[in-house]
Amino acid sequence: MxxxxxxxxxxxxxxxxxxxxxxxxxxxxxxxxxxxxxxQVEERIELQLRGLRAPADPLPERSHEDESFEPWxxxxx
Length: 77
Prior knowledge:
By secondary structure, the protein is mostly helical. 56% of the residues lie in helices and 0% in strands.
């Protein structure tokens, strides 16, 4: 007669399997972005070590329109 595994062992197995699947999906989705960001950081560090200036990050463009907001305009009731 075979003994059934303990319920906690089954739950632990399901939890570990779910965790591994979630990590695998996250690495597949975020991997290229993280690799690109890491390469940029490495390039900046290498340029700093060589005494060269790293290119500055481009600043986001701002509109040249004078638009000011009053605090009550930001809240919708």
